[in-house]
Write a structure and sequence with these properties.
The structure is a homodimer of 341-residue chains.
Chain A: H1 8-15, H2 19-27, H3 34-47, H4 53-60, E1 65-69, H5 74-79, H6 81-97, E2 100-104, H7 111-117, E3 122-126, H8 132-141, E4 145-148, E5 158-161, H9 164-177, E6 183-187, H10 203-216, E7 226-229, H11 234-247, E8 252-255, H12 258-270, E9 277-282, E10 296-299, H13 301-318, E11 325-327, E12 330-333
Parallel strand pairs in A: 1-2, 1-3, 3-4, 4-5, 5-11, 6-7, 6-8, 8-9, 9-10
Antiparallel strand pairs in A: 10-12
Helix pairs in contact in A: 1-2, 1-3, 2-3, 6-13, 7-8, 9-10, 11-12
The first copy, chain A, binds a DNA duplex (16 and 16 nucleotides) through α2 and α4.
DNA sequence: CTGTTAGCGCGTTCAA
DNA sequence: TTGAACGCGCTAACAG
């Protein structure tokens, strides 16, 4: 029952050696005699000694954990398959480097508070704008950060993204190539996963630029398509679809996220509108559910996760932090939801 | 640049008060004069002071984090939609209680090592057997644990599960009711998500008992169906399907997991064997991908997660740990993969 | 080379 | 309102 925790002191007392010797026996055996090491280790085993990881980390000034900042409330964030696959990538990298992965939900709805209290060595964000106040907190805590889908123009914060303009252009071209002209575009909200106004250089603006480029090749402009913004959940996608369909029937929905595309697809399916096409954006990983169903632009979430974790771990270990902006590949994935006119 | 972290000492020096006073100003303002509180807080703001959460936690002997032990390598665990929904439930509960959720991958392939080093206040496991050595580590660390899908007969470890026997009986009855008699059952591996031999009282055995009960009502026994065990991944499900189909063609596959059922469904779909039925087990949450597709027995993963997190938090806060075994509901979910004969 | 002493890190809290 | 001790492991500096 209430047996007190065994500490390094207990081992020291039991063996007659000092705390230092015990510590060395574990971390730097060559520093003391073999005989001493042996005695100490066997005593430790006998007493069932486990070094307290918190005390150890405190001493070393490390946590052995990366933090992933959930951009929305926990359920919503984790319900987003794109975010889910990002987490998979981060987790895989963490595992191989012996780190834990700590999911950080907003604390009392405040991301700032959450970051102030997070016991991690570094933070990965996704799709949120990192404002002055958050930057201040990170700086004061000396906490490195990598922003997935962050701005490539940011001079202070490293990012991992795709070529959003190119990817969006590809997406729209696929739609146009197949003859669609009555197009409804469901965009991301102003700030991808949180609420904020659209900024130049944002993912949203880059994608729009890509769409414009594609449309131009068909002598069209953004004003020839219907634009509607939506949160990135299946439910929000359903609402967006219903909203669009109440005023007109496009031949194709172009969505900036798969979650939304799923919601749209559900509505179309329920209304037996199988002739209306849908193309998504994000893609999901092999092991996920229902791989090949949705036609979409795949940006490997898990690769973004992996790459960002690698960058973050390098920043943590190297101490120096050259700000880098890396991109990962994207591709078109044929499914069953984008037809020809 | 290299401005050293601001500590409680700095505030004390700057204001002329003691560390103690500063600490009280933050945590227990009524202990000191209002004037002091005000001076201290304003000085703290001026110096941009953020209390170091690790030092704070170390002092308090808390972590403010729950740990979720990944039963397999990170990618595989997180790729399993059932596990994913469990994590969602845990995360939601953590968020509401101001805790973080730390995913703990096996360290150097060792769960024991991972648990030794985990900086969390308690641990939730899923589908793994908690052996003597692991119990020893948990005890020595004074770390409470809740085992999802753990044994209800365990006198030392609290668990959250469903009535596996009843659920399996329901699953098989649905199949039999619809006229299926040539049945292939794909079971869980011996230990749900790790490798170990089947034990009486295990999920596997309970489910088998449920199947037997259902079959008996149709004057059949387990030896009238084909049994094959498989890991709980989509890929393993594909392999299982191919293996079964190489020797005979059942009218229905009964799977103990949705991941496996998905793999089976993919193979059937590729081979245009649309007349062969599949029923899964686990179910997925609303916000997930492709909700209504697979016919399955739904055990709410997120509810298991929520309940287990609640139990764990109670154990952490109450200090006392009455071992409890709770069950959550299950239900049949009609999809499009279970036909009539 | 082996081992120890002493102090650190930082916020909390007991005794005064 | 405060000085000092505490939690626990790490490590610089030093002595034998």
């Amino acid at each position: 029952m209430g047996t007190k925790r065994v500490t390094i002191q207990d081992i020291a007392r039991k063996t007659g050696y000092s705390k230092t010797a015990v510590s060395f026996a574990f971390n730097c055996p060559s520093r003391i005699s073999e005989a001493a090491v042996e005695k100490i280790l066997s005593a430790a085993k006998e007493l069932d000694y486990i070094p307290d990881p918190m005390a150890r980390n405190f001493s070393l000034g490390k946590h052995m954990a990366l933090g992933f900042l959930l951009p929305q409330k926990a359920g919503t964030s984790l319900g987003n398959p794109y975010i889910h696959s990002v987490i998979k990538g981060i987790a895989a990298e963490c595992q191989s480097k012996g780190y834990m992965l700590t999911l950080i939900p907003p604390l009392h709805s405040s991301v700032q508070e959450a970051v102030k209290n997070a016991t991690v060595d570094g933070i990965i964000t996704i799709g949120i704008e990192i404002d002055r106040s958050l930057r201040g907190i990170l700086r004061r805590r000396g906490m490195p950060i990598v922003a997935i889908d962050g701005s490539e123009d940011d001079e202070a914060i490293s990012s991992v993204s795709i070529d959003d303009e190119g990817a969006a252009e590809m997406q729209m071209l696929k739609v146009l190539e197949r003859g669609h002209r009555k197009i409804a575009v469901i965009t991301l909200p102003g700030d991808a996963y949180s609420s904020s106004s659209a900024k130049p250089g944002s993912t949203l603006e880059k994608r729009k630029a890509g769409y414009a480029k594609a449309l131009k090749q068909y002598s069209m402009t953004l004003s020839d398509v219907t634009l509607l913004s939506s949160d990135t959940t299946i439910m929000a996608g359903r609402k967006a679809a219903e909203s669009i369909l109440s005023s007109f029937t496009p031949t194709c929905f172009v969505s900036m996220s798969d979650a939304v595309a799923m919601g749209i697809q559900e509505v179309l399916s329920e209304r037996k509108m199988d002739d209306v096409s849908v193309i998504g954006f994000d893609g999901i990983e092999e092991e996920e559910y229902r791989t090949q169903y949705l036609t979409t632009i795949v940006q490997s979430g898990s690769e973004k996760g992996r790459v960002s974790a690698q960058m973050l771990l390098a920043m943590i270990e190297d101490r120096q932090s050259p700000v880098m902006h890396r991109t990962v590949e994207y591709s078109f994935q044929e499914g069953r939801t984008l037809g020809w006119i």
